[in-house]
Amino acid sequence: MGYVTFSDIRLCSLKEISQLVDRPLAQIQILDRAQALGQAYTTGASSRYYPLEAVEALAQAPRWSKETFPQKLVELGIKAPKAVILRQIDAQPTEGPAGRSWYGFNMAAERSSDPSVRAGQSNASRMVWKVSASNLALTRSLAPGCSLPMVITVGGLIVAGREIVGVDEAVTAEMGDLVAFEVKDAGPWLEEVRFNWLSSGPGQPILWWGLPQG
C-alpha cells in the first residue's frame, strides 16, 4: 500500500483502512464521520487520513460474535439476564423529543469535557427505540442497583457503552410505541471491550442478547 507520510507519521486512507481491518469501506466511512477512528489528518484536497499505527491496533483488536461476546461480559463480572447492543449510525444533528440533540454517535461528544455535551450523547443513545413487550417488562422490573449492560457500536466497532437502569416513563409516554431508557455510565467492564469489533449479524438497530446464567 502507498501510505502518505506527515511529520514522520505514516497515514492511511479510508480505503486502505478498509483493507487493513477487513471491513467494508461503507462501515469505515461511517466510523470516520462519527470521529471514531482517532485523530484525522487532511490534505489540500480534504481527503482524510489516519495514523497507520492506530489502524494496525484496530486490525489486531479482538472480534466478538453473538456466541462469544455474552460469555466475555460474564467473565468481566456482569450479572444481568441480557445485554443490549445499539447499532448506531453517525450523528446527524437535529432536534428531537425531550431535548434529544441528535440521532447517532459522535466520539467528540462522547469525550467532551462539557457535561451538557456528553449528556446530549447519552440522550442520543438512550432514546427512542422499538422494544418488545417482554424486554420492556424486563427493563421495568430491574431492582435498585441492577442494570443491563448496553454497548454502542458504529460500523461494527464497539465505541461506547452505558448501563440501563430502567425506563424513562415520561418520554416513553410521549413517544407512544417507542421506549426511552434511563441510563448511567458503564462500569469498568467497558474498557475491556471498547474498540473491539462486534459482529452482530442482521437484524434491528437494537438487539437483546441473553447472557449465560450460572
User: Approximately how much beta-strand content do the residues carry?
Assistant: 25-35%
Number of domains: 2
**How does the major sheet shape up?**
5 strands, mixed
| Through-space gap between termini | 48 Å
How confident is the prediction overall: mean pLDDT?
88
Strands of the widest sheet, in order across it, are 9-8-7-6-11
Number of β-strand runs: 11
Compute the CA-based radius of gyration. 18 Å
Task: Give the overall shape, derived from the CA principal axes.
Answer: globular
Show the helix and strand layout.
Blueprint: E1 4-6, E2 9-13, H1 14-21, H2 25-33, E3 41-42, E4 48-51, H3 52-60, E5 63-65, H4 69-75, E6 82-88, H5 107-110, H6 115-126, H7 133-140, E7 148-154, E8 157-167, H8 169-175, E9 181-185, H9 189-193, E10 197-199, E11 206-210
Parallel strand pairs: 5-10, 6-7
Antiparallel strand pairs: 1-2, 2-4, 3-4, 6-11, 7-8, 8-9
Helix pairs in contact: 1-2
Description:
The chain is built from 9 helices and 11 strands. The protein is α+β, with helices and mostly antiparallel strands and 214 residues long. The chain has 2 domains: 4-60, Orthogonal Bundle (Multidrug-efflux Transporter Regulator, Chain: A, Domain 2); 63-210, no CATH class. It has a 5-stranded mixed sheet with strand order 9-8-7-6-11. Strand 3 and strand 4 form a beta hairpin. Helix 1 (14-21) packs across helix 2 (25-33). The protein starts with a strand and ends with a strand.
